[in-house]
Specification:
- By secondary structure, the protein is an alpha+beta fold.
- Helices cover 31% and strands 23% of the residues.
- It is built from 4 helices and 4 strands.
- Strands 1-2-3-4 form a 4-stranded mixed β-sheet.
- The radius of gyration is 13 Å and the shape is globular.
- The two termini are 23 Å apart.
C-alpha cells in the first residue's frame, strides 16, 4: 500500500524514489499516480516527505487529479531540470 512506502523505504535504506515516464505502460508511475493521461513526467517520493510530480505544463490539470503536489516542469526550465530536481529533493 502507498501508506507503507516510508516504512518500506526505511527498511531498504532508500532516501528517495525516482520514477520517470508516462503513466501508461509504466507500472510504478501508474501505481503512484493512479493512472491518467500523464506523459513525460518525473515523480519524486522522498522518505518522510511528500510525493512531488513534475509534469508538462499542458498536463497540469490531468496531473492535479492525482492529488499529488504538482510542479509544471517549465517553472524550473528544461535545460537544467534534472540537476535542479535532484538538488531540491535529494
Amino acid at each position: 500500500m502507498k501508506s507503507d512506502l516510508d516504512t518500506l523505504m526505511q527498511s531498504r535504506n532508500l532516501d528517495a524514489i525516482l520514477v520517470t515516464g508516462n503513466a501508461d505502460h509504466n507500472p510504478p508511475m501508474y501505481y503512484l499516480t493512479g493512472g491518467g493521461h500523464i506523459s513525460a513526467a518525473t515523480l519524486i517520493k522522498k522518505r518522510g516527505g511528500e510525493t512531488v510530480l513534475y509534469c508538462n505544463a499542458m498536463e497540469r490539470d490531468e496531473a492535479a487529479k492525482t492529488g499529488l503536489k504538482i510542479i509544471p516542469i517549465a517553472i524550473i526550465g528544461m535545460r537544467n531540470s534534472y540537476k535542479k530536481l535532484m538538488a531540491t529533493h535529494l
